[in-house]
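Researcher: Here's a chain I'd like modeled. Treat it as a single chain, no partners, no ligands.
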Amino acid sequence: MAFKLHNAGLIALGAIFGVAITMQFSALAQKPLEPALPLEALRQLADVYAVIKTDYVDPVTDDKALLQEATSGMVASLDPHSAFLDRRSYRALREGTAGKFVGLGIEISSSDDGYVRIVEPIEGAPAALAGIQAGDLVTNVDGVAVRGAPVDDAVRRMRGEPGTQVTLTVLRSGHIAPLKFTITRSQIVQKSVKGALVEPGYAWLRIAQFQEPTLDDLAAKLAALYRQDPDLKGLVLDLRNDPGGLLQGAVGAAAAFLPKGAEIVSTHGQRADSRQHFYGTAQDYMLKNGDALAGLPAGLKTVPMVVLVNTGSASASEIVAGALQDYKRATVIGSRTFGKGSVQTISPVGLDAAIKLTTARYYTPSGRSIQAHGIVPDLRVDEYVDSDGMNSLRMREADLEHHLANDRSKEASMRADDLEAQTRLYLRELARKPLQFGSADDFQLAQALRYLKGQKVLLSAAQATPP
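Model: Modeled as a single isolated chain. Structure tokens:
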């Protein structure tokens, strides 16, 4: 996700619970209504409202909710990332950028069988302390079934006031009966940056999503890695499953490895303020005074690099991968990214709601549009040694109904057409142990290290297929 504060430049906001978007804050009160109002259509809406009030089987008393649903449907019909945000959704969006929220402390995603999958519990957070594990499938939240419901519904049920409790019912591999965990909510402070020396001379750095503290955490982790080994011979930047985040974080992350002042990303849309260029300078990547990247080791500009991406890499993470790829600063390894390359503007409506509206596309330094196309890796490497057929099953931007078209290249759905093959692959992947990025079992990381050492890389069969 990405959005813009009036005095802070574009931000790409990535929610831990879904694919990132690009947004900017605006004020409807400052904008004149230039287009003529379609009075006939508005009269029709009023007529529909009147018929519902008088003829529906039961009395409809919540007029505000009814009209909010009408507004929500109007905005949502435009594209998958435009939406009406009620008070709760608007608050959750603002909390996500700060990396702080009240909840359980879990990374979640939707599973292919309709449940909510635990991607990873945050270390030391309530869910981890209660015994929740990566790979668990949440079936119920406080007794309410979540299968088939939007992930956001489960998120809302899991969040609440500090000190209150919530009960999760989960399915876990190896357990016949469902497990129940009663967890006390607390304020969660997310750490979006991890890193380690995985071998002498070789570092792994993972950005899980881009938030307000990410650049400070990134700079601190890079400095620590160089203190451990001042003569690094290779660095792997891991952006897999990174749904996006603050664009300032993306610009800063790319700037850490590129020449000072290099163009990182540009945006273009109908509005004059949507046509902008962002460079690797403190004024374009800092949300506060100072420069988090000042004083970083000079070796970061030249150390050989690999960027790991997959279908879960979206928005701000695609900006970083695209910039480093355009400048040939890093070799991109993995699978084609999600293809979320549009900008959404957040316009407050009243005191407790907002409209999130797509207003621009963003482009890599060479002018490529990522929208509905994604970043194609230089080297395609599967997630597992025995091939990752699940890539053909995973949802991408081009698969979303009413998605915004790519204006500079041909787009296409990446879904496999062979339903039988999909089913076989799905059942095989379902039986796998959840992959822990950065672990000894991380096949893509192992191949990235082989590449940095000049050794043969085990490529995907898809490498022979034109992108």
